[in-house]
Design brief:
The chain has 222 residues and is α+β, with helices and mostly antiparallel strands. 19% of the residues lie in helices and 34% in strands. It contains five helices and ten strands, in the order βαβββαβββααβββα. Strand 3 and strand 4 form a beta hairpin. The longest helix has 15 residues.
Length: 222
């Protein structure tokens, strides 16, 4: 993979272009840290945006859902989509209403979806989805059976037309506002994961695994 994704008229950041990044490492880091993607598409003339779990697998994103889902049937058939992942890092409190903002990292991936239809590849894609969502869980639960495989659709979208956009740093107050008697700064936002809660019907003597006790979102290799 190249170090930078080629810019296109659709993916080029126009508003505050200095915040845009086409660096694959930056894009991959945001995608690997996120959990929920918002998938935008147009169906029968109406726009939709649906939140979904996802996984990055190299230079593609994997999406999955029920074969009875209208969304998944549409994605599997192949449609133009916009997939967005956003990580919120801080609220930015400025001295003026106008300059309040947020520190964030976001990625938009544009492209046409394709079904992962071949059965072995589909099973492997589902393994990747589980491993990316909960690293360490693969091999520590019952694998997908044939009935479940038929009840599931998997679609992919290539990470070929994508942009990261980021805001960092303190408020950008106007010089004439710096002496105003109002507090300004950042309110950091951190996503934390609590201790595992056992299922009410869990058998006695099964302890939560280390990957559940120590769960966190980290960039992956590849």
């Amino acid at each position: 993979m190249t170090a930078e994704i080629q810019r296109t008229p659709r993916s080029r950041v126009r508003r505050l272009p200095q915040r845009g990044s086409y660096d694959r490492a930056v894009i991959n880091q945001v995608l690997d840290e996120g959990i929920v993607a918002h998938v935008g598409f147009v169906h029968e003339g109406s726009p939709f945006v649906i939140p979904m779990g996802y996984a990055r697998d190299g230079d593609r994103l994997l999406l999955h859902g029920s074969s009875a889902s209208r969304l998944m049937r549409l994605l599997a058939a192949g449609t133009e989509a916009a997939v967005t992942v956003t990580l919120l890092d801080a609220l930015v409190l400025a001295r003026s209403y106008f300059h309040h903002s947020m520190n964030y990292r976001s990625v938009v991936v544009l492209g046409r979806t394709v079904e992962v239809a071949e059965q072995n590849e589909k099973r492997e894609a589902l393994d990747v989805l589980l491993s990316r969502l909960v690293p360490g869980r693969h091999g520590d639960a019952r694998p997908t059976n044939d009935l479940e495989l038929r009840a599931t659709l998997v679609a992919q979208i290539p990470i070929e037309e994508a942009t990261a956009k980021l805001r960092t740093g303190p408020p950008a107050d106007d010089d004439e506002d710096l002496a105003l008697p109002y507090w300004a700064g950042l309110v950091p936002v951190n996503t934390t994961f609590g201790p595992p809660e056992p299922a009410p019907d869990l058998r006695d003597g099964i302890e939560p695994p280390a990957y559940a006790r120590n769960y966190g979102r980290r960039p992956t290799d590849g």
